[in-house]
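Per your request, structure below.
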């Protein structure tokens, strides 16, 4: 029950961070996402939000690091769900992994064109 409450609280914080990013409050969004990652280090959405905020702030090294962390943690969750053979959990984890992979690819492409290239 406690884990479920923590996950629900982190989901709420991720939504808050996403809203702040859309509103242009990038530093505040970064702080929210950093709090999610501190509370739940294996939360791919927290790492991904922090990557997007870092990108908006021009912190390209951290954006790259966090995008990679998002993809890695999403893959780990997917693998764990498959091992436990939790059908719905594996399906949800697969969707989470796919989303993280797509957004990481977009961040990587942006970095390649604008920074690394």
């Amino acid at each position: 029950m406690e884990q479920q409450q923590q996950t629900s609280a982190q989901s709420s914080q991720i939504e808050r961070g996403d809203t702040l990013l859309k509103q242009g409050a990038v530093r505040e969004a970064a702080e929210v996402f950093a709090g999610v990652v501190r509370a739940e280090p294996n939360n791919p959405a927290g790492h991904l939000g922090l990557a997007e905020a870092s990108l908006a702030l021009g912190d390209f090294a951290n954006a790259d690091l966090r995008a990679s962390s998002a993809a890695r943690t999403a893959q780990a969750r997917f693998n764990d769900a498959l091992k436990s053979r939790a059908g719905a959990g594996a399906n949800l984890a697969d969707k989470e992994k796919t989303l993280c992979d797509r957004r990481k690819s977009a961040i990587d492409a942006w970095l390649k064109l604008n920074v690394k290239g």
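The chain has a mean pLDDT of 82.

Regards,
D.
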